[in-house]
From TrEMBL:
Signal peptide: 1-20
Domain Peptidase C1A papain C-terminal residue range list: 120-349
Biological process according to GO: proteolysis
UniProt GO molecular function: cysteine-type peptidase activity
Gene3D superfamilies noted in UniProt: Cysteine proteinases (3.90.70.10), Cysteine proteinases. Chain C (2.40.50.170), Granulin (2.10.25.160)
Keywords attached to this entry: Disulfide bond, Glycoprotein, Hydrolase, Protease, Signal, Thiol protease
SMART domains named among the record's database cross-references: GRAN, Pept_C1
Domain of life: Eukaryota
Protein name per UniProt: (rape) hypothetical protein
Domain Granulins stretches: 372-429
Family: Belongs to the peptidase C1 family.
InterPro entries xrefs: Granulin, Granulin_sf, Papain-like_cys_pep_sf, Pept_cys_AS, Peptidase_C1A, Peptidase_C1A_C, Peptidase_C1A_papain-like
Length: 459
């Protein structure tokens, strides 16, 4: 799997509600209720904001300035300098949004079909009920389907057993390979099916998330701490059915989340822009699918009308959006809901308690080192880089502390595979030749000669 850091041809986010006319300004707002001219901030203020953004998100400047356009439009949300602000939308989609798999089977149930006379609560927030774990960061790649499925399982497990347990996403990435594709994309229904067939899923503590495709750890796969009994799909294209389902438990959904507005989403602006008239709303069409899990629904009174919102959690960490959450409007005209949220909702079913806790898994066998040649080795999850070549032969090897790294030629540094351009003058790694931002290059360490490795094994 690519270590490309949301389902996700399916992103896992918590949606709260969005009325959306797109405002492209990312540095010109102080609040949500005004528009500004291009000169509304001084050069010093812009520079300060830029430096704060670099520091907050660990960015390294390698070029001069970047142009961020903006439009003075009424909007109910604000765009900001998120950690993705230095990426083009194409880069963002390729790095953070996985491929969309086609669902070949459906298990639509009438359990939560909307019916006339349904008495549903005005609002539900499963966070307040203690059924939602902390916001996660999936990193780059398309593993959001796993986060979404696991989040729904964590929620129903809390509802049935009273225990909120953070469960392993990495187990799904590594082991659920018959149908899903790890960090390259997947579907929550298939993840539920894997958990059922496996007899349960391990904890996050025992099988932690690494953000890359790995080999399935059979010992931890057999831990089976939390179980589910079945899964079903909410009737498609029915926001009322989705609301009914969400009033009973957290739900996994798929949304289109590859748009620029999603990439730069910062916060919701109550009372801004479109007022209470749906006809004045301008809707953003998300270009790619992302998995998410609605956490709540409810409303905010505005202009004597109620704007109804869904709360969804996005798996990009708490520094994105509203502490890791985004709000999305509900009750819109489109049958599929905002960004297609009502197209593929699904949920796990749990009928009883979990099996006895088996305790932590025993340590996995120590994997052998990576062999650079007949004389040198590097540790597992490192990359062998030649330090000194003589003709066709490598005389000395170094070890880069990254998998599938780029070895910088004539230098003792290396770069992540998704930042493959070595900038030797600045000691940084670029995503592409003309990229304005970079990450710091890593230093290699000397490889271990076989004779030294043999001594360690004897000791």
């Amino acid at each position: 799997m690519k270590l490309i850091s949301p389902v996700m041809a399916i992103l896992f986010l918590t949606m709260i509600g969005v009325e959306t006319a797109m405002d492209m300004s990312i540095i010109s707002h102080d609040d949500c209720h005004h528009t500004f001219s291009a000169g509304s901030r001084s050069d010093a203020e812009v520079s300060r904001l830029y430096e704060e953004w670099l520091g907050k998100h660990g960015k390294v400047q390698t070029g001069l300035g970047s142009e961020f356009s903006y439009r003075e439009r009424s909007t109910s949300y604000r765009l900001g300098l998120t950690k993705f602000a230095d990426l083009t939308n194409d880069q963002y989609r390729s790095m953070y949004v996985g491929s969309r798999l086609k669902r070949t089977i459906t298990r639509t149930s009438l359990r939560y079909e909307a019916c006339v006379g349904d008495a549903l609560p005005e609002s539900v927030d499963w966070r307040k009920e203690g059924a939602v774990t902390e916001v996660k960061d999936q990193g780059s790649g398309g593993s959001c389907w796993g986060f979404s499925a696991i989040g729904a399982v964590e929620g129903v497990n809390k509802i049935v057993t009273g225990d909120l347990i953070s469960l392993s996403k990495q187990e799904l990435v590594d082991c659920d390979i018959p149908y899903n594709e790890g960090c390259n994309g997947g579907l929550m229904d298939y993840a539920f099916k894997f958990i059922i067939n496996n007899g349960g899923v391990d904890t996050e503590e025992d099988y932690p998330y690494k953000g890359v495709d790995g080999r399935c750890d059979q010992t931890r796969k057999n831990a089976k701490v939390v179980t589910i009994d079945s899964y079903e799909d909410v009737p498609a294209n029915s926001e009322e059915s989705l609301k009914k389902a969400l009033s009973h438990q957290p739900i996994s959904v798929a949304i289109e989340a590859g748009g620029r507005a999603f990439q730069l989403y910062d916060s919701f602006c109550p009372g801004a822009g479109a007022g209470g008239s749906r006809k004045k709303f301008r809707y953003i069409r998300w270009n790619l699918w992302n998995k998410s899990r609605p956490r709540s629904f409810g409303g905010r009174i505005r202009n004597r009308e109620r704007q109804r919102l869904l709360d969804c959690e996005k798996l990009m960490g708490s520094s994105w959006g509203e502490s890791g959450y985004i709000r999305m409007e509900r009750n819109i005209a489109a049958s599929g809901g905002k960004c297609g949220i009502a197209v593929e909702p699904s949920y796990p079913i749990k009928n009883g308690q979990n099996p006895p806790n088996p305790g932590p898994s025993p340590p996995s066998p120590i994997k052998p080192p990576i062999q650079c040649d007949n004389y040198y080795t590097c540790p597992q999850r490192y990359t062998c880089c030649c330090l000194f070549e003589y003709g066709k032969y490598c005389i000395a090897w170094g070890c880069c502390p990254l998998e599938a790294a780029t070895c910088c030629v004539h230098n003792d540094s290396c770069c992540p595979h998704d930042y493959p351009i070595c900038d030797l003058d600045h000691g940084t790694c670029l995503m592409s030749k003309n990229s304005l931002f970079s990450v710091k290059a890593l230093k290699r360490k000397p490889a271990t000669p076989f004779w030294q490795q043999s001594r360690k094994n004897i000791a």
